[in-house]
Amino acid sequence: MQIRFESSPREVLQMNTKALRENFLLENIFQKDQVNFVYSHYDRFMIGGAIPATVTLKLETYDALKSRYLLERREIGIINIGGAGQIIADGETFDIDKLGCLYAGKETGEISLSSKNSTDPAIFYLLSAPAHQKYPTRLFTKEEATPVTIGSVETSNHRTIYKYIHSDGIQSSQLVMGLTVLQAGSVWNTMPAHTHDRRMEAYCYFDLPANQRVLHLMGQPFETRHLWVANQQAVISPPWSVHSGCGTSNYSFIWGMAGENKDYTDMDAVLITDLK
Ligand SMILES: O=C[C@H](O)[C@@H](O)CC(=O)C(=O)O
Ligand SMILES: [Zn+2]
Questions:
Q1: Which SUPFAM superfamilies does this chain map to (predicted)?
Q2: What are phi and psi of 161, to 5 degrees?
Q3: Complex ipTM above 0.95?
């Protein structure tokens, strides 16, 4: 498992493109028949991917965690961005279609991931945070995630937000997770932008054509930087950073957070005219 340390705003000021990408972009978490995690020191968040194409994949612990099993002291949220899949959590079987989300709480022992069809495998995006309390394992379809449509065609940010794990949805210790789908013709996410110094965040872009890219904005609002991001790549957003993007086409992305609270609306808005 790759470990990513934290960077301060002062360090980020000095970074060139390569350093920004090495610290904040996750280019290769989705690999056929593998589970891959990156461990971020921001809120000890683990960001991973798993594609069980021809084999069933089990979630295992890592030496860096010094735990007997992955969720001994952690919780996990799993969203499927691929074909029909199945998750077995401590003997309970969950069918999980595209954009379905399974939450598994602290002390869930065995989790295995598989696909219904190896030619159209499930693609599981995984987010895990430390947990100090057990919450029940729960599945949400995207319809259960109370979709809310915001933005407009005029400002190229017309999009639907699905909230799965948060204070008014699936209960968790600290994990917050959901996804946003941009309507055709809309390209801007999270504009107007915001920060929430109380929570770090990770974005995973998907349903972006292979020959298109998202220009992801990061940094303090008055000192922004950018990352060019391809389909099925993820970005780590420090708590002090904006996280917003503009695509060369429309796309979707999964957002996930950990930190002080699970209140999705706890955001410090940034005026568009204040961005530098
Ligand atoms: O803290 C919340 C996250 O940044 C996202 O939910 C924002 C988002 O999906 C959007 O505006 O499109
Ligand atoms: Zn945010």
A1: RmlC-like cupins
A2: -105, 125
A3: yes
